[in-house]
Amino acid sequence: MDVQLNNKVAVITGGSTGIGAATAIEYAKAGAKVVFGDINEEDAEKTLSTIIENGGTAKFQRTDVTAETEVADLMATADMAFGGIDTLVTSAGVLRGPSVRIDDFEAATFDSVIDVNLKGTFFALKHAVPIMGRENGGVILCIASGAGVRGGSSSVAYASSKGGVNGLVMTVEGQVASMGIRMHTICPGGLATPLKLGQIAESAKRGGQDPNEAVANARNSLGDPAGVARVLTFLASDAGSYTRGQIFTR
């Protein structure tokens, strides 16, 4: 199936690395105009260069998703530069405190993960929905995880945040359906992203193991973020318009 996103405008949070970067590249390849935000400016330039070198259209704006004004500015940039938003992907995320038992888990660590993963998603939805609903609606794809939805996680905070994203989508999708906006919770499995590899290394270190060896061994069983990006491209396209509900990937 030749999936196209011609003339569609996509906003992606957390677009510098991992699923966000792979999706930005795949969307641009399919013809979308991509606006992505992240605090990681160095890797953002690599993602942007890849898109431009392949003939795509993209803009990067440094965005801290824990700051509501910065998220609002990202959405406004897409609106002003390209005339609206057709697709939103909330990919910004962190995993902190792996392998820490609940009674040792620091409240500050818990708060920092909730702020990025859950509150950052809330801010993105809050400021994208009015723009998307102004015209013909669109598609919102919120990256959650199997953790917090089907099972636990190495991190108390991470599972809590991703379960929260799932609940947020289930609540908001009923509010925006009449605006022509379709929403999905995306639950990827184990992928070779900086977030996942960092978690493996930190857990190995806590357990007295060699973190480099643990990461090297894990790579063989982890999926490629580009595979998830292809799923997200289908969901953002007209071909995906009959899809509903949670989406679980490798």
Structure commentary:
The protein is built from eight helices and seven strands; from the N terminus they run E-H-E-H-E-H-E-H-E-H-E-H-H-H-E. By secondary structure, the protein is an alpha/beta fold. The chain has a seven-stranded parallel beta sheet, with helices on both faces. Helix 1 (18-29) packs parallel to helix 2 (41-53), helix 1 packs across helix 8 and helix 6 crosses helix 7 (211-219). The protein is globular and about 55 Å long. The two termini are 20 Å apart.
The DSSP helix count reads 8
Label the structural class. alpha/beta
Beta fraction:
5-15%
Residue share in helix: 40-55%
Order of helices and strands: EHEHEHEHEHEHHHE
| Spatial ordering of strands, largest sheet | 3-2-1-4-5-6-7
Q: Oligomer, anyone?
A: single chain
What can be said about the biggest beta sheet? 7 strands, parallel
Could you tell me the radius of gyration in angstroms?
Answer: 17 Å
Describe the structure using short key phrases.
250 residues, alpha/beta, seven-stranded parallel sheet, 8 helices
